[in-house]
Design brief:
Layout lengths: L8 E4 L4 H11 L6 E5 L5 E5 L7 E5 L6 H16 L4 E6 L18 H12 L3 E5 L14 E4 L2 H11 L4 E5 L5 H11 L2 E11 L2 E8 L6 E9 L3 H12 L4 E9 L5 H7 L4 E5 L11 E4 L2 H12 L11
Parallel strand pairs: 1-4, 4-5, 5-6, 6-7, 8-9, 8-11, 11-12, 12-13, 13-14
Antiparallel strand pairs: 2-3, 9-10
């Protein structure tokens, strides 16, 4: 009798349980059983409550700060490796610590590289993630990386808005490639914001390169943290004559007083994915789920079929 490849098992880190439930439902499988034992000092230990020997497993967990989220993923990977799982895929909708992808001044770490090595050392045999802060982070891994684009969700949404005089904008020079890709898909104009930072998360100067007079502008970025850049850019564009300004950002970190900034800004709406769970609701924030995208890719990975269409902008 030929060997039958067992169906994969899907598990969730605690910070991504809601998204993992959506993904497993879209995949057509039940979420695997795992418990976390916690000590009084904060130390925790994950435990798979079912056999994973010889199977392919997917561990779903975004690694947004604090460090507990990354540590959960590492411990889950190690537990799966020691339980003799056949293939161990870390499904990381948001790959944390990615902004530290190079040495921008002396005596600092390259945290993204360190995280990549830690994931591999812990037992990951494959990584599935979405909209990395920098594409070159894929090169930090020796294992296969499936880098997906949230544009597969955002582009249909933008097309359905049927906005006249649509203009795509990048909130900084680093995001210009992403903005040009969206503009090409939507056949629209592009404008770029030029900014200088006083320090991390603090903008000292912002200028606009391009004309937004009478345009409906959509800002495109991979993440929104304090929302300082997006809200400042939106206010600047309205001052320069834009009819409306929206923003699409894949990962909604929304730390500090980000929610207050968004509510007070000239942004019509902020469209994000559920790669990171929102801390609270906002009338200006619309969430598009990435569950179907990840479920589809996981199915293709397990059955060894092409996923190249999910890499395209």
């Amino acid at each position: 009798m030929p060997y039958q490849v067992p169906e994969p098992k899907i598990f969730a880190c605690t910070q991504s349980t809601i998204l993992a439930e959506k993904i497993s439902k879209a995949y057509g499988a039940d979420l695997g059983k795992v418990i976390f034992s916690r000590y009084s000092d904060g130390e925790f230990q994950p435990s798979f409550e079912e056999s994973v020997r010889g199977t392919r497993i997917f561990i779903i967990g975004s690694t947004n700060p604090g460090p507990e989220n990354l540590m959960e993923m590492l411990l889950m990977l190690d537990a799966a490796k020691r339980a003799s799982a056949r293939h161990i895929t870390a499904v990381m909708p948001y790959f944390g610590w990615a902004r530290q992808d190079r040495k921008d001044k002396p005596r600092v770490p390259i945290a993204a590289k360190l995280v990549a090595k830690m994931l591999e050392a812990a037992g990951a045999t494959r990584i599935i993630t979405m909209d990395l802060h920098a594409d070159q982070i894929q090169g930090f891994f020796e294992k296969p990386v499936d880098h997906l684009f949230a544009s597969t969700m955002f582009l249909p949404y933008l097309r359905n808005l049927n906005l006249d005089k649509l203009t795509i904008a990048s909130p900084d020079m680093g995001g210009s490639k992403r903005a040009y890709a969206y503009s090409k898909a939507l056949e629209s104009d592009v404008v770029i914001c030029y900014k200088q930072r006083e320090k991390a998360n603090v903008i000292s100067v912002m200028e606009l390169i391009g004309d937004v007079q009478g345009k409906n502008v959509v800002l495109v970025d991979d993440m929104v943290d304090t929302a300082g850049t997006l809200t400042k850019a939106a206010d600047l564009m309205i001052e320069r004559g834009a009819i409306s300004v929206r923003a699409i950002t894949t990962h909604a970190l929304l730390s500090g007083n980000a929610y207050e900034k968004i509510e007070k800004s000239k942004l019509s709406e902020l469209i994000v994915t559920d790669s990171i769970p929102l801390q609270k609701a906002s009338n200006k924030i619309r969430v598009l789920t990435c569950a179907d995208l990840f479920a589809d890719v996981m199915h293709r990975v397990h059955h060894n079929t092409s996923i190249s269409s999910k890499f395209l902008m």
